Amino acid sequence: MNIRINGPSHETSNKMKVIAYGAYDRHNYGDLLFAIVLKHYLEANKGFHVLIAATKKSDLSRFGALPTISLKEALRATRQQRNTMLVVAGGECLTAQWESIIGYLAPQAIYYPIKASPYVIGHHQFIRLSRKFTSIPSDMPMVLGERELPGYQVMYNSVGGNEISRKKPLIHAAIKRNLKDCTYISVRDRETSAELEKLGVEHRLVPDSAVLISDIFPQQPTPSEAGHIVFHISEHHSRRRIEAIAEQLSELSDSTGLKIALLTIGKAPGHSDDTPLDKLQTLLGERAFRVDSGHIQDIIRCIATSKLYCGTSLHGAITALTYAVPQIALLPKRVIKLSSFLETWAPRRSSGFAEIDQISHTASALLASFGEPQKKELQTVVALLKERVRDNLDHMIGLYEKASIKRGADIYRFHRRHPMRSPLKPGRAGGMPRPTHQART
To answer: Residue ranges of the Polysaccharide pyruvyl transferase domain (predicted)?
Structure first.
């Protein structure tokens, strides 16, 4: 199924605009899925026109992604609406910091120098410069609050943010301040939920919305596809481990008779997979093959038609989950967001956890125990997860519509009392006073 990626038509220009904001301007598979899911659900089912916004304008359509406009442009495009829903939807966004976001916008050669910049010039100064450079009205690039966005209802759609409590006081305070100044928050795992409870922030626990991707891109294996095992690891997590991984994968391939698909899931700085997977291909030879296009539908097809997924990518595991393929979280003690999500939502009989020296044993055991009963159980669980995601999206729409009705009534009363004045968006000079907000469920 193709997702429309062209500019707005006359038909869409008359619809209520909604902003979906996230890290959709870099090649990281999971982030790119959020934009597709939100646009499909809100436009196909609810009649909105969704603006896909990121830090900057981008076009990754060659990878099957949706082009983005800058958040600044999206805010300008919705300025005349009485009330606008702004949905923050994207992975581990609650703890994303400026040095990472700015680093993604720069050439890869200076990614790590940019990451070090706050420690050279100071975090206060780096935040100030980043805000000015991107025109994003927040001290945290992906944590927006309504105080600095009058007239917008900021909602968080099944996001993540582990280890908030371990952040520097400046960062910790900015996260808490903005999360307490929004309309609604849903998070995707128990670890993030526990962090928000420490902050005293109201929220709901909801599965990652990427589980809906199998509704958008249904997959059916063909008789000619013998099946394979998908393996993924990022460059960061592969350091000094390549030879040990190759030994485990060789043993796994020999014992199962299945080839290993070495799958590239991310190509952005900090998420690059090609280097370690190319090295593994050299070491594994005919036991493995590369899937490295980076195209969303190639990634989905590779995982959906496999016998097993094993890797460090959360959205690799979520893709396996939604297509009823068993999953192994690699390096679970290091990749907390991955292990936490599977522990929260995945059936125990269809998932596993492995350190490097446990890959072959864990994968072989899971393959041997995963039969038709386990597959049906997983499909039942996935159907329930999807229903919770849809209910969450509908709940956000309900909050928005309720606020829009109230806003319309407020404007009507304002006109009756002050017929010569214009009820501008809340907080602007000459307009209505800005209402206070707390996160609502």
So the answer is: 28-330
